[in-house]
Amino acid sequence: TSMAKTFKYIIVGGGVAAGYAAREFAKQGVKPGELAIISKEAVAPYERPALSKAYLFPESPARLPGFHVCVGSGGERLLPEWYTEKGIELILSTEIVKADLAAKSLISASGETFSYQTLIIATGSTVIRLTDFGVEGADAKNIFYLREIDDADKLYEAIKAKKNGKAVVVGGGYIGLELSAVLKLNNIDVTMVYPEPWCMPRLFTADIAEFYEGYYANKGVNIIKGTVAVGFTSNSDGEVKEVKLKDGRVLEADIVVVGVGGRPQTALFKGQVEEDKGGIKTDSFFKTNLSDVYAVGDVATFPLKLYGELRRVEHVDHSRKSAEQAVKAIKAAEDGKTVEEYDYLPYFYSRAFDLSWQFYGDNVGDTVLFGDNKPTSAKPKFGSYWIKDGKVVGAFLESGTPEENSAIAKVARVQPPVADIDQLAKEGLSFASKI
Ligand code: FDA
Ligand code: NAD
User: Fold this and answer.
1) In whole angstroms, what is the distance from residue 138 CA to residue 232 CA?
2) Closest ligand to the CA of 12
3) Is the whole-model pTM more than 0.90?
4) Which atom in ligand 1 lies closest to the alpha carbon of residue 297?
5) pLDDT class for 2, splitting at 50, 70, 90?
């Protein structure tokens, strides 16, 4: 309509990638009124990883404005005023419900129309819900998912309301491990339930998982493996009371936290843009098959040059770097220039209790464990290498120093040959430090 608000650039989604893109736009030069960020959330872009960690601490929890981007990577904190100063329009609490990429327009839930010259899709992921696969009673109160700050606020309130209560955590991935730890720190009695033989199977080897399971057990976290939640019962207030497991067991629960995976939010663009591997397909500059549409962060399926294949990555480091790459490419193209292809080294990390691990590279091939992975050690420090075609392609390290973490990152990037796997296991970290 003639009432459309028009911008040169629109970023749809106001998460991590949007925040880092805004910073890059400011760096490259953007005129007041050229750029808008449209976000369903009510707050300026922030470092999402805080939500499953310090945001839920019992003592002095992290709160905004403390963790707005770009503090997570050691950068400047972009407060709402920063966007105002730069003339970047933050259009918050606004969900886009329709996208017409041919007409270059977006429509919000309240019926506003926005048009753009260049669109950056940064809608991230949404959680998979137990109601999606019809688990009985899964819509009871006090069954929580965690993606956005509103979800974290609701969970925080429940933790306060159910002091010394019982929680069941469904899922043994990132959310499962991080939330079990933080619930335990809040003095909640925690039971984790997951179907696989060990936690975080998409990354951890059995040896790695054995350490974390032992460590969690020593902290008093109960772990039930090899089964799933098939139903919930609730009390007369509609609050969850019990979790029924497939193996017949029934667990009491005041709080349930579910972390059974995420799904990229691409529905708005279905049939309008090319997709691959569940995400929006891009080139090395995060440009889609439409020349004026880019996709970054969790939604992008991009060429991972190091491995010669298309991948989608659901981690914060990539959301930051892909956003910066897209903006650099957009600005360069306007000047008739190009930028280097994205050459990403996958980097994932997690923190829980006093633990902190990092992983770089690709978790394929054979593995060797090194170091002290006894859960009862005073200072456990261990890691693992992944070896494919005679070369180290991935490396994991628990409790590394910054120097040691840089060393394993370098190994994963350089992919040094290994002649003798037993020798590699013996050398452990010192192998990485020599590269
Ligand atoms: P992100 O999810 O950050 O942002 C998407 C934004 O788009 C949201 O604000 C959403 O509301 C908005 N949006 C979606 N659809 C919209 C629409 N139609 N209209 C308007 N707005 C819309 N990674 C890691 O490496 N280490 C870690 O420790 C953690 N920890 C962690 C904790 C928790 C609780 C979560 C949920 C995730 C992590 N991650 C992580 C993953 C990391 O946070 C994730 O990969 C990035 O946030 C992805 O950034 P994006 O900008 O792509 O999506
Ligand atoms: P995930 O993929 O890490 O873990 C999903 C887990 O769900 C599986 O490991 C499995 O144990 C479990 N599962 C699957 N079906 C189940 C069922 N029916 N019943 C019980 N368990 C079942 O996903 P997540 O932990 O939900 O995380 C969601 C998203 O948030 C992901 O994109 C993740 O990368 C991101 N995240 C990342 C971090 C981090 O990088 N440190 C932290 C939190 C969240």
Assistant:
1) 6
2) 1
3) yes
4) 52
5) low
Structural contact between residues 284 and 270, judged by C-beta atoms closer than 8 angstroms:
no
Q: In a 10 Å sphere around its CB, with 0-12 CB exposed, 13-18 middle and 19+ buried, how is residue 2 labelled? A: exposed
Task: List the helix and strand counts (H, then E) for the chain.
Answer: 9, 26
- Does the C-beta of 312 come closer than 6 Å to ligand 1? no
User: For atom 14 of ligand 1, which residue has the closest CA?
Assistant: 123
Q: Is 52 in the pocket of ligand 1 (CB under 6 A)?
A: yes
Nearest CA to ligand 1 atom 33: 49
Sole residue written with tokens 């040059």:
305
Q: Average pLDDT over the chain, rounded to whole?
A: 97
Mean pLDDT to the nearest integer, 146-153 = 98
Q: Atom of ligand 2 at shortest distance to CA of 201? A: 9
Residue 3 is predicted with a pLDDT of 81
Give 132: exposed, middle or buried? Use CB within 10 Å, 0-12, 13-18, 19+: exposed
**Can you give the pLDDT at residue 24?**
98
What ipTM was predicted for this assembly?
Answer: 0.98
Ligand 2 and 260: CB distance under 6 A:
yes
Q: Report the Cα–Cα distance between both ends of the chain, in Å, rounded.
A: 60
pLDDT digits (tens, 9 = 90+) for 27-71: 999 999 999 999 999 999 999 999 999 999 999 999 999 999 999
pLDDT of residue 1: 47
Of 1-10, 73-82, 201-210, 327-336, where does mean pLDDT reach its minimum?
Answer: 1-10
Label residue 375 exposed, middle or buried (CB < 10 Å: 0-12, 13-18, 19+).
middle
- 14 Cα to the center of ligand 1, angstroms: 9
Pocket residue to mutate for ligand 2, from 191, 192, 244, 260, most atoms within 8 A of Cβ: 260
Give the residue carrying structure tokens 């040691």: 404
Q: Which residue has the tokens 């619930």?
A: 183
The residue to which tokens 């179907």 are assigned: 195
Residue having the nearest C-alpha atom to atom 7 of ligand 2: 260
Task: Give distance in angstroms: CA of 170 to centre of ligand 2.
Answer: 9
Q: Hey, whose CA ends up nearest to atom 17 of ligand 2?
A: 228
Euclidean distance between CA atoms 199 and 390, whole angstroms: 28
Is residue 371 lining ligand 2, measured as CB closer than 6 Å? no
Q: Which comes out higher in pLDDT, residue 3 or 328?
A: 328
- Using CB atoms within 10 Å of the CB of residue 234, give its burial: 0 to 12 exposed, 13 to 18 middle, 19+ buried: middle
